[in-house]
Amino acid sequence: MSDMSGIAVNNLRRLDINLLLTLDVLLAEHNVTRAAQRLHLSQPSVSVHLARLREIFNDPLLLPGPRGMRPTARADALREPLREALEALERAVAPADVFDPAQATHSWKIAATDYGESTVVLPALSHLRDLAPGTRLAIVDLTPAQMVKQAEQGVFDLALHISEDAPPELHRRPLFTERYVLAGRVGHPRLTQAPSREQFCALEHVLVSREGGGFFGATDKALAEVGLARKVVLSVPHFLMAMSVLASTDLVAMLPSRLVRGNPALQVVDAPLQVPGYEMAMFWAERVHRDPAHKWLREQLLASV
């Protein structure tokens, strides 16, 4: 078996695409002159190709006949497999088709936190369904430390994450810049106006800790730089949980402005200190960078924010 495999490999190494194209046309035309015309080659060049093919296949392939050339049994056996192989190769190297969302049946996977779901995916969802009704969309957990590996392995097609923590190996497109605001329930007795720094620190705060269990974040760092500290009494891993807590208690939180914008259960005031915001972006691997369907998906998400 290994000897036969080695012979096949050696034969493939002796072939090139031009020889196979010549053989395909010769098997269709049964005439060197007509084959040369179709291939835009000289007749001697086609004859040279035929001689090489006969040597490689150890068969005359085409024999003189009364009306042109007639194929040998070996040539007849080659005809269909060769045509199928060349058609497959043509499809493989053909330019990518123009993406038609109305006819698409893709299943996309987007890696995101609940923040990315709410601020990027949700605003785009209705438009995506209208334009591409045959597609499906799955939201998968975002694991920043595994982004490069997961992107290259196809665990997700697109990731939504902050630019600051993003790996340089992935393509990136900024979506928007976010800022923090102070939020609490509607009618909160201590949020009728923007609090002073002392009042701010005296409030009981919820902190969103993506890794879980943390009680120190960007707001605490900004306070520490001016010699202050706040009272963080609850740490949760998700923004949506934090907003539910705010709506039903007197706890407050520093939250991204887009997340609380238009929420009827919450009221928002400016914090008494500047907390650095961040840039939200989408990320993807080189393997899908030029794919027309992927480009279309990126354009829809960008247009929705």
Short description:
With 305 residues, the chain is α/β, with parallel strands linked by helices. The chain has helices at 2-14, 17-29, 32-39, 43-57, 73-93, 114-131, 147-153, 197-202, 218-224, 239-248, 257-260, 292-304, and strands spanning 62-65, 68-71, 107-112, 136-141, 158-162, 171-178, 180-185, 204-208, 231-236, 252-256, 266-269, 278-284.
Please provide a written account of the structure.
The chain is an alpha/beta fold. The chain has 3 domains: 2-93, Winged helix-like DNA-binding domain superfamily/Winged helix DNA-binding domain (Arc Repressor Mutant, subunit A); 105-176 and 280-304, D-Maltodextrin-Binding Protein, domain 2, CATH 3.40.190; 180-276, Periplasmic binding protein-like II (D-Maltodextrin-Binding Protein, domain 2), CATH 3.40.190.10. The protein is 44% helix and 22% strand. It contains 12 helices and 12 strands. The protein has helices spanning 2-14, 17-29, 32-39, 43-57, 73-93, 114-131, 147-153, 197-202, 218-224, 239-248, 257-260, 292-304; strands spanning 62-65, 68-71, 107-112, 136-141, 158-162, 171-178, 180-185, 204-208, 231-236, 252-256, 266-269, 278-284. A 5-stranded mixed β-sheet has the order 4-3-5-12-6, with helices on one face. β3, α6 (114-131) and β4 (136-141) form a beta-alpha-beta unit. α2 packs across α3 (32-39) and α2 (17-29) crosses α4 (43-57). Mean pLDDT is 91; it is low at 1-9.
